[in-house]
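> call design_seq(struct)
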C-alpha cells in the first residue's frame, strides 16, 4: 500500500466556502496543539478545502478538483499533507487562510521543530508496512522517522543533463500518473508525462530511487 506525503503551501488563496465542513482535526492527538497554534496565528475563521486553499505550483499542477472521483478518494485515503499549523492534514480538510512559515516561532521553537517531535512519534503507526512516497522538500524529511516504512520511494527529475532544481510540478504529475493509472511499484517504469520518462529504478535497502529524464521538448 502506498502512502503519499504531500507538501505545504505558504502561498494561499484567500477564499471562503460557506458549506465547507470537513474536519481539519482528523488526528485527534494533534488537536490540542493545533487549537493552541490557532489561538496564536488565526485571524479569521473563513474556511476552504485545502486543495483549493493551497496555491503553490504543486497544488495548482495537481488540479485535485478535476481528478476523477475514484482518484480523489484514493489520494485522500492514502496521503497526508504537511502543515505548520496542523501538523498533518487530509487534502480535503477545510482550513482557514493562514499563510504561515515553518520558521515562525511558538514557545521558543520554530514550527518545524515544534512539529518534529509529534510527527516523528507518530511515524511507526503511520508508516509501518507502507510504501512511502514523500513528494515533499527534502528539508522536511526530518519530520518523519522513515525507518518504520517498508519502502521509501524517491524521485529525481533531469532535463537533458541537468537535475531539475524545483520539481514541484513534476511531483504533482507523478502523483497524478500513479493514481490515475493505478500503478503498483513494478509498474513505475511506465511513468511518463510530457517527455519525461523513467530512465532507471535503483533499489538500495528500503530506498527506491526512480530517475526520470526529459529531452527538453517541453517547458515545465
Amino acid at each position: 500500500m502506498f502512502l503519499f506525503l504531500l507538501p505545504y503551501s505558504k502561498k494561499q488563496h484567500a477564499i471562503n466556502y460557506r458549506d465547507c465542513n470537513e474536519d481539519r482535526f482528523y488526528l485527534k492527538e494533534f488537536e490540542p496543539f493545533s487549537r493552541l497554534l490557532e489561538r496564536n496565528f488565526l485571524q479569521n475563521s473563513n474556511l476552504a478545502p485545502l486543495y483549493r486553499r493551497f496555491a503553490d505550483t504543486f497544488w495548482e499542477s495537481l488540479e485535485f478538483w478535476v481528478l476523477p472521483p475514484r482518484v480523489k478518494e484514493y489520494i485522500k485515503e492514502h496521503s497526508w499533507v504537511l502543515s505548520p499549523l496542523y501538523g498533518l492534514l487530509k487534502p480535503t480538510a477545510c482550513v482557514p487562510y493562514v499563510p504561515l512559515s515553518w520558521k515562525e516561532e511558538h514557545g521558543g521553537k520554530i514550527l518545524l521543530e515544534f512539529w518534529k517531535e509529534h510527527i516523528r512519534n507518530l511515524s511507526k503507526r503511520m508508516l509501518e508496512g507502507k510504501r512511502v512516497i514523500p513528494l515533499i522538500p527534502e528539508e522536511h524529511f526530518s519530520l518523519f522517522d522513515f525507518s518504520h516504512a517498508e519502502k521509501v520511494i524517491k524521485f529525481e527529475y533531469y532535463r537533458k543533463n541537468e537535475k531539475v532544481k524545483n520539481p514541484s510540478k513534476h511531483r504533482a504529475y507523478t502523483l497524478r500518473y500513479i493514481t490515475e493509472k493505478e500503478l503498483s511499484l513494478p509498474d513505475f517504469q511506465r511513468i511518463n508525462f510530457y517527455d519525461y520518462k523513467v530512465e532507471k529504478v535503483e533499489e538500495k535497502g528500503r530506498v527506491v530511487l526512480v530517475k526520470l529524464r526529459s529531452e527538453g521538448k517541453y517547458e515545465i
